Amino acid sequence: MPAFPAVQCQKIRPNGAAVESPAIWRHRAGRAVGVDAAGRFQWSGRHYDGCLLIVVCEPQCKAFSHEKFNSGFLYGLRLAFPEERLCFYGDASHIDSLRKILAHDKVSIENIEYVPVRFRIRPGILRLIGYQRLLSSVLSEVRSAGSDKVFFLSFNPEILYSLKRLKQKIAFRTMKFTLVLHGGFESIADGDVRAKAEAPSRSFRERGIVEKIRRTKLADLPAKALTVCLRAAERAFSPWHAISRRFLTETKMLLWKHSDDFRYICLSPHVRLNARRYLDVERLNFHTVTLPMVFADITPRPHNEFAKFAMFGYGDSLALGGLLTDLASRKIDSPYEIRVVGMDNRGIEGFAHVTCPSPGKPLERSDMESYAMDIDMFLILYDKTRYRLSCSGSILESLSYLKPVLHLDNECVNSFNKEKKPIGIRCDSLHMLADKLQEIVEGYADYGPVLDVFRENMLEVRRACSVEKSVGALRASFTW
Predict the structure, then answer these.
(1) DSSP code string of 266-279
(2) What's domain 307-465's superfamily in CATH?
(3) How many helices (H) and strands (E) does the chain have?
(4) What is the DSSP secondary-structure string of 257-309?
(5) What are the residue boundaries of the structural domains of the chain, listed by start?
(6) Using CA atoms, how far apart are residues 160 and 182, in angstroms rounded to an integer?
(7) Distance (Å, whole) CA 258 – CA 209
(8) Packing angle between helix 157-166 and helix 124-144, nearest 10 degrees?
(9) pLDDT of 478 strictly over 50
(10) Given this chain, do its domains 53-187+247-290+469-477 and 307-465 carry the same CATH topology?
């Protein structure tokens, strides 16, 4: 095992305060190291592509949004490029969340520099101008540091447009970018007549203004009010909203001024496969890296007195309401629980057998894990019109905690729940899912062996989807 010098460069003071400085890497000594022995130590072999600096940028997420997957990308990039320094640009609140989740997962990434950047969301054309100014500043610092490439953990059409405009400048002409495709990529299928025909009409009661105010911190109210007023003014008086929706689309921005200096990452094999219906994925340099996640430690299957199900994290509250309505119409004598391990409690009021430990309030990861500890199965209620061109984190969360899934027919979940090696039960409709849930509830005492088989298969899928297995694909997506 090679020995690494213990050099650690960070832009966060020990008290958590951010250090603002434009000269972020100049005169930094030391070489990059692997993941230290206090956490998960991996050595992927010496690799050098002419650059000893890996720059990663998250221009959209704040706080704990995408924390689990972005930390997985940082871990994967460290394994893919063990000799290089890492530098991460992102919102200060997101940096704090990443540091917390890495510590929680016992992953210590050394020689990483965190640079807090405030990506303000401006209304109208000011938003586009703001992106170009800020990204120009970031790219200038990257060039000054001697690098010519940036790994973007997310983007939208305005960000991609800004990058392609900036790349026309002489200073940035040799810059190269790898960008991760997320939910916005679903929009390229908007013209799919079949998808529109299958899509159900969706509606749900939005939270009233009084409830929204009650859930907002007093110190945040002025900024929230200003944002609401600016957005209302934009819709009322500015044509920019309509113009951007027509011209700054995902498809048009992917195709506009494309070159080999732009690469994109699909977060599941089914995404790249489905994208072929709409785009030339080879010409656009689409790579596949399964949504990276540092999986939790293996724990034994819970042994409960009655069946317990959970909707973990983000979910479909409308579908859950439909499921609860169906279950309420049945005569089910055996006890059971459906737990919402998240903050969205819409649609569950008045129903029996359903709980939400933290209604309207975000949970820390440790709290979410605690509430999931005694759960038998996770519910994934996305129908076949969802996640055709993106990957749901719900299925990776189920793999992480070894919770078999009870889910609706969905291409994303199906790609993990194979017929020969099932990790749960697929249902064609909410009514069929309610039938299966009732069957599990009433026969729970004898259902343990079935859950054990699912869990054994999940261990095999976990190994195939581990961050370590994605090292080669990550390296290829960011090496020119």
Answers:
(1) ESSHHHHHHHTTTS
(2) Glycogen Phosphorylase B; (3.40.50.2000)
(3) 17, 13
(4) T--TTEEEEESSHHHHHHHTTTS-TTTTTEEE------PPPP-PPP--SSEEE
(5) 53-187+247-290+469-477, 202-246, 307-465
(6) 13
(7) 44
(8) 50
(9) yes
(10) yes
* Spatial separation of the C-alpha atoms in residues 264 and 302, rounded to whole Å: 40
Rounded to whole angstroms, the Cα distance separating 107 from 97 reads 14
Q: What is the CA radius of gyration of the chain?
A: 23
Mean of the pLDDT values across residues 414-434? 97
CA 21 → CA 24, 112, 131, 138, 418, distances in Å?
Answer: 6, 16, 20, 12, 50
| Phi (first) and psi of residue 311, to 5 degrees | -100, 115
Q: Per DSSP, what are the bridge partners of residue 286? A: 264
Q: Return d(Cα 147, Cα 174) in angstroms, integer.
A: 10
Place of tokens 């930390």: 71
From residue 385, alpha-carbon distances to 280, 298, 314, 321, 350 in Å are 22, 32, 17, 18, 29
| 92-116: pLDDT as tens digits | 999 999 999 999 999 999 899 999 9
DSSP class of residue 233? H
285-319 residue pLDDT tens:
999 999 999 999 999 999 999 999 999 988 888 99
Q: Which single residue is written with the structure tokens 């992917």?
A: 254
Q: Is the pLDDT of residue 200 over 50?
A: no
Q: Model pTM?
A: 0.82
The CATH H-level superfamily of 53-187+247-290+469-477 is Glycogen Phosphorylase B; (3.40.50.2000)
SS3 338: strand
What is the C-alpha separation between 414 and 271, in angstroms, rounded?
12
